[in-house]
Write a structure and sequence with these properties.
mainly beta, nine-stranded mixed sheet, 5 helices, 45 strands
Length: 676
C-alpha cells in the first residue's frame, strides 16, 4: 500500500472516530426516580467537553514542538480538564437533588465508578450506599455538609445495573430525603472474567474489599467478600502493579514506557492517581523504578527501588527517596557499596523488592531477594545496622559482624518478599522489633547447598532484639508454595493475617494465586480466594471517598523528575557521522514515535535503538544515548516498550530525527520544529 493510500485511509478513520465521538458525546438518558430525575451522561460527553480547557491546563514556560509525529496528551493534563469541566457543571447550579447529573466512568480509567452532581438550597451532609448483593457487601460513604455536592461512586457491579442510594442528612445526621439511582456499567473485559473464585467466605472479614495489584495477565481490580469484582482499572500497569498511598491515592507504573537496563526494563513514567482514575502528577525516574513504592511518612516523600546502571553494570540495587513535590532524588543507598563483593557476581545480584522507613529510628528496612537477606540501614549515615539471614550464607565474609545471632532453632527464609516491621505485640520489650517476612522459600536465582527443599512457603514473624543483635522465631504460618512475588498483611485492629500468595507452584485447580485470611493467634483459616492468573501483591482496598469528592487543585507543573535529554555533540563527534549515508525508513516495524508536549517517545524492542539524533538544518547535532546498557537475560530480549526523552532543553530550531540500530543509521523521515 502506498504512503498516499495510507494517509487517505488514516484521514477516513479519523473522521469516523470524530463522528462516533460526537454522537456519543451528545447521548444522554433521563431516569425518573423517587420524585425526581437523573440525567445520565457517558464518559465521552466529559471527554468532548473537556477539550475546551486544554489551554487552561497547559504547562507553564513550555516551548511548542510541532512535526510529523503523532501527538498525544498527558494524562495529568486531560484529568484536570475533565475535572474542571465537571466542576463547572456543578457550579452552573442547573443540577439539583430533584434533577441530578450522573456520569459513569467520567475519567475513562475506572469503569465501575461514577460521579453524581447536584446542589441544595441549604447545607446538607450526604450518605451514599452502593448496594451489594448481600448487606455485608454494601459500600457506604459519608460526606460533610455543603451546598455543592460532588459525589464519587465506587463499587458498581460490572455488566448490570447497581442501585445507588443517595441520602441528604441534616445537622443531626437524620435523613431528610433520599433517591435510589440505578447505574448501569458494561461487562467485565475478557481478561477479568471468572478470575476470582471464592473458596471460603467470611462475612466478617477484616477487609471488606481486597485490591489485586500487578502480575502479567491481570489488571488492577478489587473484589468483595463474595469474590465479585467491584473495581478495576482499564489501564494495565507494569507487572509490579499499583502501590497504595495515603489519602486513598496510589502510584501507577506505566508498563510500556521503560528504561533499558542490563536485565528487566523498568518503568520510567509513573502517575499519582486516585480510584476514580484522576491523575494529579506524572513522575519521571530516568533509570527506572521497580518492585516497591512506600511513603516515607504519611503524605511524605516516595520510597522506591531503582538501578545504578553504572560501570559495574548492576540493576535493581538502589533504594531511592523521591521528593513528593519535584520527584528529585533527594537520597539514595547503593547497597553494593555497603556489602562486600562476594555475591556481586551478576547484574541483578541484590534484587531489592521492598523498602520501608522507620521515622523514629531514621532507618530503612530492605528486602534483597537474590541474597536471601533482610538489612536494616541507617538512612542518614548510609550504613548497615544489622542483617537478618541464614548465617551459613555469609560464612567467611566480613558481613558476619552485622549478622543477627539466632536464638534457638530459627527456620530461615529464601528469596523472600515484602518485609515489614509489624506491631504484633501491644507492649513489646524494650529494643525489640517484630519483622514480618513473606518467605517464598525458593532458591532458583541464588542456589544454596543447605536449602532444605521444603515444599511450602511461609509467612514468618521474627523477634529481633536490636540491642543484643539477636533474632528468634515468633510465629511461622504455613501456606501453599508461591515461588515469586507475594506479600502478607497483619491487621492490628482485628489481629487477622492476610497471606497474598501470587505465584503458586504447582497451580491449585488451575489457579496461579491464592489469598487467605487467618486469625493470627489461633492460625485458623477464615477466608480463601483463588486468583486464576496470579498477581504481584494484594492490599486492602481503601479509597478516600471524601478526597475524591473534591476537585483537583489546578496544577500546570505536573511533569516532575528527570529523563534523558539530547546532548550536543562536538564538531569532531558530529563530523564522524555521515547522515547522508543512511538507510531510509526504520530499523523495525515495531518502531514508531509519539510526542506528548515536549516529551518524545520512541517505541522499540528491547535495546533495538542505540541512539537518537536530532540534526539541526545547517547546524548542530544532538544525541540521546541508549547504548549505555546491554541485555544479559534472554527473558527480556523481546520486550517491547517506549524509551522516553525530554526535549525541553533542546534549542529552538528545525530538526531531522535519525535512529541508530545495530550500528546502522536510519532516516525515518521524522521532523520536528521547536519554537519559543
Amino acid at each position: 500500500m502506498s504512503d498516499f493510500s495510507k494517509k487517505v485511509i488514516s484521514k477516513i478513520n479519523k473522521k469516523k472516530r470524530e463522528f462516533l465521538e460526537n454522537s456519543l458525546a451528545s447521548k444522554k438518558k433521563v431516569l425518573h426516580v423517587g420524585g425526581g430525575t437523573v440525567v445520565i451522561r457517558p464518559k465521552e460527553w466529559v471527554e468532548h467537553g473537556a477539550k475546551e480547557y486544554l489551554g487552561l491546563f497547559s504547562r507553564q514556560n513550555t516551548s511548542k514542538i510541532k512535526g510529523n509525529i503523532k501527538e498525544v496528551l498527558m494524562l495529568s493534563r486531560t484529568s484536570q480538564c475533565k475535572d474542571w469541566f465537571l466542576e463547572l457543571e456543578l457550579r452552573s447550579e442547573k443540577w439539583t437533588f430533584n434533577k441530578m447529573l450522573a456520569v459513569v466512568n467520567p475519567y475513562g480509567e475506572s469503569p465501575l465508578s461514577a460521579v453524581v452532581l447536584f446542589t441544595t438550597m441549604m447545607e446538607y451532609g450526604v450518605r451514599v450506599t452502593v448496594k451489594g448483593d448481600i448487606p455485608e457487601t454494601d459500600i457506604v460513604s459519608e460526606y460533610p455538609r455543603t451546598k455543592m455536592h460532588r459525589i464519587p461512586v465506587l463499587g458498581l457491579y460490572a455488566g448490570r445495573t447497581t442501585d445507588v442510594v443517595i441520602e441528604i442528612l441534616d445537622d443531626n445526621g437524620d435523613v431528610c430525603d433520599s433517591r435510589r439511582i440505578p447505574l448501569e456499567t458494561p461487562p467485565l473485559p475478557e481478561d477479568l472474567e471468572n478470575v476470582i473464585v471464592a473458596k471460603k467466605i467470611n462475612k466478617e472479614s477484616a477487609f471488606q474489599n481486597i485490591l489485586i495489584s500487578g502480575g502479567v495477565d491481570i489488571k488492577p481490580c478489587a473484589f468483595d467478600r463474595e469474590g465479585k469484582i467491584r473495581f478495576y482499572l482499564s489501564r494495565k500497569p507494569k507487572g509490579y502493579g499499583i502501590f497504595p498511598l495515603s489519602k486513598g491515592r496510589f502510584l501507577f507504573m506505566e508498563q510500556d514506557i521503560s528504561a533499558p537496563t542490563f536485565t528487566n526494563p523498568h518503568s520510567v513514567q509513573m502517575y499519582d492517581m486516585d480510584y476514580l482514575g484522576r491523575v494529579g502528577k506524572t513522575y519521571f525516574v530516568k533509570n527506572g523504578a521497580h518492585h516497591t513504592v512506600e511513603e516515607k511518612t504519611k503524605d511524605g516523600n516516595i520510597l522506591t527501588a531503582g538501578n545504578s546502571l553504572e560501570a559495574d553494570e548492576h540493576s535493581e540495587d538502589l533504594v531511592l527517596e523521591l521528593n513528593r513535590e519535584t520527584a528529585e532524588i533527594v537520597h539514595k543507598i547503593k547497597v553494593g557499596e555497603l556489602f562486600d563483593d562476594k555475591y556481586q557476581d551478576m547484574k541483578d545480584w541484590a534484587h531489592i523488592n521492598s523498602a520501608s522507613y522507620d521515622e523514629e529510628q531514621d532507618s530503612m528496612l530492605v528486602s534483597m531477594r537474590n541474597i536471601h537477606s533482610v538489612a536494616k540501614f541507617d538512612w542518614s549515615e548510609d550504613e548497615i545496622k544489622w542483617i537478618m539471614a541464614d548465617p551459613r550464607f555469609w560464612e567467611g565474609t566480613k558481613m558476619t559482624e552485622k549478622l543477627l545471632k539466632p536464638i534457638g532453632e530459627v527456620p530461615w527464609f529464601y528469596q523472600q518478599h515484602a518485609v515489614f516491621d509489624v506491631p504484633i505485640v501491644e507492649n513489646p520489650p524494650k529494643n525489640h522489633r517484630y519483622i514480618m517476612v513473606f518467605d517464598n522459600h525458593w532458591h532458583k536465582r541464588r542456589k544454596v547447598k543447605f536449602f532444605d527443599k521444603d515444599k511450602n512457603s511461609y509467612v514468618s514473624f521474627y523477634d529481633v532484639d536490636e540491642k543484643e543483635l539477636t533474632v528468634k522465631l515468633y510465629k511461622r504460618i504455613k501456606i501453599p508454595k508461591s515461588k515469586i512475588r507475594s506479600n502478607a498483611i497483619f491487621d492490628e485492629k482485628s489481629r487477622h493475617l492476610y497471606s497474598m500468595a501470587g505465584y503458586l507452584v504447582p497451580e491449585i485447580d488451575g489457579n496461579l494465586g491464592v489469598i487467605q485470611e487467618f486469625e493470627f493467634d489461633s492460625e485458623k483459616k477464615l477466608a480463601e480466594y483463588y486468583v486464576k492468573p496470579g498477581f504481584f501483591r494484594a492490599h486492602e482496598f481503601q479509597p478516600d471517598m471524601v478526597s475524591m469528592s473534591k476537585p483537583l487543585v489546578k496544577n500546570t507543573d505536573y511533569l516532575l523528575g528527570d529523563l534523558k535529554r539530547p546532548e550536543k555533540l562536538s564538531e569532531e563527534q558530529a563530523g564522524n557521522i555521515d547522515f547522508n549515508k543512511c538507510k531510509s525508513g526504520k530499523p523495525s516495524g515495531d518502531v514508531f514515535m509519539r510526542l506528548a508536549e515536549d516529551v518524545l517517545y520512541v517505541h522499540e524492542s528491547d535495546h533495538l535503538i542505540q541512539k537518537v539524533y536530532f540534526v539541526e538544518k545547517g547546524g548542530d547535532v544532538y544525541e540521546v544515548d541508549y547504548d549505555d546498557t546491554h541485555q544479559t537475560m534472554k527473558t527480556f530480549e523481546k520486550a517491547q516498550y517506549s524509551v522516553i526523552m525530554w526535549l525541553d532543553k533542546l534549542p529552538e530550531g528545525q530538526y531531522d530525527i535519525y535512529l541508530k540500530s545495530h550500528g546502522e543509521l536510519y532516516n525515518n523521515r521524522r521532523k520536528i520544529t521547536k519554537l519559543d
